[in-house]
Amino acid sequence: MEYAIETFNLTKKFIPTRGFVDLLHPFVKKEVTALDNVSIKIKKGELFGILGPNGAGKTTLIKILCTLILPTTGTAYVNGYDIIKEEEKVKASIGLITGEERSFYWRLTGRQNLFFFASLHNFSSSEAQKRINNVLNFVGMEDKADDKFHSYSTGMKQRMAIARGLLNDPPILFMDEPTRSLDPGTAQNLREFIKERLVKEQGKTVFLSTHHLDEAEQLCDRIAVINKGRIKACGTLSQLRDMIGKREIYVIKVKNLSNSVLGKLRDLEGVITFSTDVQSDLGFSEIQVSLSNSETVLPKIIEMIVNTGGKIHACNTKEVVINEIFTQLVSETGGMHVD
Questions:
Q1: CA 275 to CA 172: how far, in whole Å?
Q2: In the chain, N or C: fewer CB atoms in 10 Å?
């Protein structure tokens, strides 16, 4: 299979800026590992998400793949080109879209900004005009193209960032937290635009960095979870659910739940997580519990509740949601992987 992006043991180490205290020890070098042996493969036409908390290494990985910084060790191929040996071919194959507005010139119009960035691709004036008209029409900004950039709303600025990233019609787009600072409605519109227009209609490969769990769940064909520079897991959402073990979640609705039994239930062997929610207006308590083995543990829980005077009105299973997957994966000390 031919991949759009492949990385092989990418590692990046930085020496942080030295402060006054560090000057007292000038020969001591403290390295920070931003990426630690990252190896992933992304298929052509895939919407691939890299998901992790702030500072996990997402932006560093994107910068390396876009040839903005060099890896310390390891290598990668983008559109089949070596990021170190074939830098110019990589740049011609990609578009970079970020939530950073400062890279535009605020006193220029949207169209003037795009002309400037088109000149960096060495387009002729006529070719630049044609491409700018195409991308403005594609992102729905043709009517606002001659307004000053500073007058745009946050959502319009982000659409201009997408227009800029599409100027050279790249097969691969890198999007670094594109919905950052957007209000919920605008963010949702942008997500739909990315999935429907860029991927399904245009056939682009999209590498999306985000720390929003719902965004990754809604958009991505596959997700890589990264934390402290290491890939903890990589696969479809279904595969990620399987990776955290055959953990099962049950929601038990109880009347007359005894407080004395709660601690015993929480400490019961096989109980992974345990929480309660008292619905005082209805006289019910709701227990949510994840189990390592429901066949043996669930009957014990029911027995303990009933023996202490509780009456069970319902017991239902609940699908593991992405925030629960994410929380467990980033807390793992090792890494897991699915191709």
A1: 44
A2: N
